Amino acid sequence: MTSAKVTEAPEEGYERGLGSRQVQMIAIGGAIGVGLFMGAGANIAKAGPGIVLMYALAGVVIFFIMRALGELLLYRPVSGSFAEYAREFLGPFFGFVTGWTYWLMWVVTGMAELTAAAIYIHFWFPGIPQWVSALVFLVVLFGVNLISVKIFGEVEFWFSMIKVTAIIGMIVIGLGVLTLGFSDAGDTAAVSNLWSHDGFFPNGIGSSLMTLQGVMFAYLAVELVGVTAGESENPEKTLPKAINTLPWRIIVFYVGALLVILSVVKWTEFSAGESPFVHAFGRIGIPLAAGIVNFVVLTAALSSCNSGMYSTGRMLRGLAANKEAPQAFARLNARKTPAVGIGVSVALMGIGVILNYVVPEKAFAYVTSVATAAGIWTWMMILVSHIRYRRAVDAGRLRASSFPAPGGALFSWVALVFLIGVTGMIAADADARVCLYVAAGWAVALAIGWAVLKKGDPAIADRDESRFEKVG
Fold this sequence. Notes:
Blueprint: H1 20-30, H2 34-37, H3 39-47, H4 51-75, H5 81-90, H6 92-121, H7 130-147, H8 149-180, H9 205-209, H10 212-218, H11 224-227, H12 235-244, H13 246-264, H14 276-284, H15 289-321, H16 339-358, H17 363-394, H18 410-428, H19 434-456, H20 467-470
Helix pairs in contact: 1-8, 1-12, 4-12, 4-13, 4-17, 4-18, 5-6, 5-17, 6-7, 6-15, 6-16, 6-17, 6-19, 7-8, 7-15, 7-16, 8-13, 8-15, 10-17, 14-15, 15-16, 17-18, 17-19
């Protein structure tokens, strides 16, 4: 069997500065974001306790996606992996679309996180306009990402450590309220709150299913370990460990935390625009607890925005390496970070500051729906690339990965059908449907961009044939 040469995003110049503890904590932190801390409030209001089952169901699908990605990563670990795998197994056009769409997802997610962070600041300083807080956070995190990947990794490590410690602490305190009955919420706290207020699905199973598009937003960023592959010290060791611990993270941080919160405080008290964790600990009445939780959810938002800035620069560099973005994005600064790509992305994240000025009450809902649509596309490309890869391996045209996904391509097909169903739910939801209009406009922009690229370089569509078509 002869291996073939394919165009790869250049790893040259990157510093492999992310150690095992940082990659592990980035993976853990990616499973705890503003979608849980902030978005869960609206989802609980719509679905009641049934939301726990939705997070569990989505979590199973996310694990299928991550195992598919893990198999690809150990086959060929590259920074900006999703676009590279789409380019290799589906063709250069899909690599182009996936790279730019994942970049868009993180730009828009950055807007959502800035919006959430600004809302959290209102807890202490209600007089500060949302847009001012969003702008300050944007500038500070931009500086962190320009310094070096080691600084990014260290900041993300401690952000994630705060989130993990806090979630575990919340669960322990909540269990204490349930078993010992202390605090202001002790008299009404009971596991029966999960079904005694109009049942486990108070608004019907249909309403619960309609929350899946919001639930999926909560899981955006779990795939970030794929972007770190090119800068991890030992990807063959750290990446499988990070992916295999995902089910425990979902069970503890999503299912466990929400079961405890909804047992301590009945679901009818939660609403959109407010963190259910802040509300629950305000009800418990522990001195300073609500303020501490608000600080934690603030760090969660900043953590995700920090990761978004990191990811956008790497994705743009991969696109530039394949002549699918301006060549300025391919350059690294003296500290080995793609400063130009990060800078342009941060400038566009500034649109989120404008949204917080113009429509502060709707900014979060608008940007999260767009980010979810972009994330679903990325996950679909991971799954389809995995299916094509397994087909090539089974035919003996490519070497097998050292980290095969259980069930081969079967669970990738299951996850793909699930994501298509979630897309249909987005179309049926009047509030979320706006993202499909944005997606249509984005598709037109990408089609025009691809046509311009091909006109400038007619060979661009043929230069990057799939590896499994080249292997003899």
